[in-house]
Amino acid sequence: MKKTFFYLAFAALTGCTNVQESGNSFKSTVINEDGSVTFFYKNDNAKEVFADIQFAGRNLMVKDSVSGLWTVTLGPAVPDMYPYCFIVDGVSIMNPDCDGYFPNEGFKNSLLEIPAKNASLPHDIKNVPHGKIVYVSYFSKTLNAINHAVVYLPPSYNENSDKKYPVFYLISGTTDTEEVYYKVGRANYIADNMIADKKAEEMIIVMPYGNPYKLLPEVPEVAGIPQTNFGKDLFSLDLINDLMPYIETNFQTINDSGHRAIGGFSRGGNQGLSNGLRNLDKFSYLCSYSSFTSTDIPEVYDKAEETNKKINLFWLGVGTDDFLYGNACDYMEFLDNKGIRSVKEYTSDKYGHTWMNAKFFLAHTMELLFRPEKSAEAMQNAKPAMPATGNEPQFTPGVMARLFPKPIISPEYFDDGIVFRFKAEKAQKVFLVTETSKIPMQEDTAGVWSVKLSENFSKPFTYYFEFDSTPVADAQNMYLAPEKGFKPSVANHPKNRYSYFSADGVKFGKIFYNLNDSTAKYFPDGVTEENDLPVVQLLSGKNDTFESWFKCGFADIVASKLLKEGKIKPCILVSGNYKGNSVAVVSAEKFKTWAERQNELEKVLLEKCN
Fold it and tell me: Is the peptide bond before 76 cis (omega within 30 degrees of 0)?
């Protein structure tokens, strides 16, 4: 495979770097020689601004009287990737001059990367063969709805159709989307580097969405079992009964417990351990990063000898400064008392419950996955849990309420429209700004502004809020437009997106992301090579990225719908730096709205792919 060093080319995907990003006359972040970072932010209307970053906390920024820029220098910090945001008059916003962002159901952060000067980090983008990222959609009988996952395929995946690979199901934490272990945890680059150095086995990594309840109009219970009963909740049932069969049908997998691993960070670690321990006939490698799980799993803890024989690796990692440290230690001690062997690792320098820890733990466990001899050695050398001091932090309902307050619902979809809500207690005026209009919002007594949009919602569209002339994405909407610089949110009414797919015969295609050349390709179900299929090229708009046609325009859904209805024949859709031949080109630049772009795409497909 061709090797390309493309660190700067990936800046837009990975974070803010010391390069010009937005066309402004200043750099929004400057990494200084001593490892400190100077932040710059332009906002002439703001009255008070803070910079909030994990290595320094929340710090007041000062407005320079000459340049008009808000600025602060923080650190120094050790090289790593750090989420951060600006707090503008009480409202958290992403850096509008930074391309890298943290996908999340709730908070919206930008990403800052501080590179190591004289060494490399596990997540660095290096001059090695790189695998591919695949976005998949599948019908879940458990949910009676469409669910999503991101899949990493190792560099050699397409070289031999007979070769099969082990699978690691890797789950993100509370409020994270299926993109986080890729865009923040950099699981793909960690795997690329370790496979190239022969420190890890080639594997497929499946990154599910850990909160499928969010996809449904109402939050159901399964036979009275609540969402928090991991192992029997909707996520667990979907994982075992829907996602795993989909992966094993559509990818080259080895389907036995010796070649399946499961784990995750925070809630994802809980979900991973619960499902792994309940299904030891399916998984023999179990990993928990900054988490713990139920101590009430029948036929597991009370049969230590039998359980130990089924597990190749039981690995637990947590930071001593993590708010879950006490709970994780209690679980480690519980396992020791039951006679269940486990590897335990602790950190104290990665700011607690953070993705710095998640990446660190992932790299350590990947050295052991699907390597029975190495994992057996690690298990044999495992040490008992650290003695409790009685001062360990514990995860209490109060901590839960502080970290995860009850969210405002926005957007909320109704048959006759969409309601948008935004909390800004200090704001004087707030508007909903869509692709075609700017609508004033009304404030209630709690400082929540709202408005109902009853027209022009039959197609996807981007929008944002403007409070006192400052634009901000909808913090409660996990769908962000992956644009350069400022990123608006994406609204797409559920009945518009998947209503034409029934439970029988759903055939979604896959979107292959080739990060080497910033290209995304949609292939119909069952197709992985272009062969002689017609190719339609999708050109980006001014601020779009190669992701935009699929994240905002849902081009894959348009093609899958027409294909299912028998109106077109199989075809390929390509966005980004595509140099091959195509039967047609659709340019986003020619149209103002994503609805118009979708209509043009459908028209072209009907003309050129019939």
Answer: yes
Q: Can you tell me whether residue 450 is helix, strand or coil? A: strand
**Which residue has better confidence, 173 or 223?**
173
What CATH number should be reported for the domain holding residue 485? 2.60.40.10
**Can you give the length of the chain in residues?**
610
Q: Of 285, 267, 294, 291, which Cα lies nearest the Cα of 172?
A: 267
Check pLDDT > 80 for residue 403: no
Q: Per the structure, how many domains does the chain have? A: 4
Residue at 286 is within a domain: yes
**Whether 450 and 350 share a structural domain:** no
Q: What is the 3-state secondary structure (H, E, C) of 329-379?
A: HHHHHHHHHHCCCCEEEEECCCCCCCHHHHHHHHHHHHCCCCCHHHHHHHH
- The whole-model pTM stands at 0.93
User: Is 518 part of any domain?
Assistant: no
Task: Report the distance separating Cα 526 and Cα 523, nearest Å.
Answer: 8
SS3 of 265, please?
Answer: strand
Question: Helix, strand or coil for residue 48?
Answer: coil
- Amino acid 502: pLDDT: 54
Handedness of CA 528, 532, 536, 542 (dihedral sign): positive
- The whole-number pLDDT of residue 218 equals 63
Give a yes or no: residue 42 inside a domain.
Answer: yes
